[in-house]
Design a protein that fits this description.
The chain is of the alpha/beta class. The chain has eight helices and twelve strands. Helix 1 links the parallel strand 1 and strand 2.
Length: 231
């Protein structure tokens, strides 16, 4: 039974989410003390976190940073903050998805199911695989990439996205292809979610010294341009 840590201070919404997910066989843990969320996270060791942003004491962004230092557990923000800047901030901090309130329980359940499948089910990476192009190495099982002695960790979505781009180097990969491969329930993916993930990959490549390799083909998709990399 997969363990979900639900961090939500609205008791009515908390009860609705808990009851919905329990019907699908998940074990849902709610917050016992908003001053001890970190301790409860370490004790539960959840398989997925549902995280509100507006919380007592510290906001959800703070806790997302804390969780990312300790674990690669998938994190889905659930928040009334629907501004694009907040969604981008959440994804930049390592969240796997962002759901804006109000939302239907069907969308919530679909996103939770998809995240669980990606991380632990049929789409999870289970063996060591390596893709190498001009010194850039993507190590799937370790969710990291290396280039010229530098290493950068990746989220599962970043790793899957970069794998698709590298596997089709110098060819355009359409947005539709990326969405279908990265999110099997792509009908529920917010329009800017792919853009945010691509931006995160670009930033991490830049950290390693790989600049401008991921090209945006407006209205079509993206391309990994190997000509931007030194031999």
């Amino acid at each position: 039974m997969y363990q979900i840590f639900l961090i939500e201070d609205d008791e009515t919404l908390q009860e609705l989410i808990r009851d919905t997910l329990q019907k699908y066989g998940y074990r849902v843990h709610t917050v016992s003390s908003f001053q001890k969320i970190e301790e409860q996270f370490e004790r539960i060791r959840p398989d997925l976190v549902l995280l509100d942003i507006n919380l007592p004491y510290y906001d959800g962004f703070y806790f997302c940073r804390i969780f990312r230092r300790k674990s690669k557990v998938p994190v889905i923000f659930i928040s009334a903050r629907d501004e694009e800047t907040h969604q981008i901030m959440g994804m930049e901090m390592g969240a796997d998805d962002y759901i804006t309130k109000p939302f239907s329980t069907q969308i919530l359940t679909a996103k939770v199911n998809a995240a669980i499948r990606r991380c632990y089910g049929e789409y999870a990476v289970t063996e060591t695989k390596l893709i190498a192009i001009k010194g850039l190495e993507l190590i799937e099982s370790g969710f990291k990439m290396t280039y010229r002695g530098k290493m950068c960790e990746l989220s599962k979505n970043e790793c899957r996205l970069l794998k698709l781009l590298l596997s089709n180097a110098d060819k355009i990969v359409t947005r539709e292809e990326l969405l279908s491969q990265l999110w099997d329930d792509s009908a529920f993916v917010d329009d800017n979610t792919l853009t945010v993930n691509v931006t995160r990959v670009k930033n991490k490549l830049s950290e390693l010294g790989v600049e401008d390799a991921v090209k945006t083909k407006r209205g079509v998709g993206y391309l990994f341009d190997t000509s931007q990399m030194a031999e």
